[in-house]
Amino acid sequence: MVKVWAFIIGILIIIFIAVSSMLLFQDDTGTPINPNTEETICNCQEDSYNCSDFSDQIDAQSCYDSCLEQTGIDIHQLDKDGEGLACESLS
After folding, report:
1. SS (H, E, C) the chain
2. Are residues 80 and 45 in the same domain?
3. How many separate domains does the chain show?
4. pTM above the 0.70 mark?
5. pLDDT (tens digit, 0 to 9) for every residue of the chain, 91 residues total?
């Protein structure tokens, strides 16, 4: 009888750990967060940035590169001449 209870308690502990882990790796909206990825540099889901939103060309380039890698396009239109350099005016 003691072995059965020990087994049940062990299963409950495993379930508790699994549920806790799932909740721990979610943001405020419930979207899963992958702890092995880098922090998102900028929003690449819609055109939401202009060059004036960045403090320097390096930050703009980081956003441009990140979104280009994720979406395959210059979603924010930060590279006006298509040469691969974002917000050259900030240089």
Report:
1. CHHHHHHHHHHHHHHHHHHHHHHHCECCCCCECCCCCCCCCCCCCCCCCCHHHCCCHHHHHHHHHHHHHHHCCCCCCCCCCCCCCCCHHHC
2. yes
3. 2
4. no
5. 778 888 888 888 888 777 766 656 555 665 555 544 545 578 999 999 999 999 999 999 999 999 999 899 999 999 999 999 999 999 8
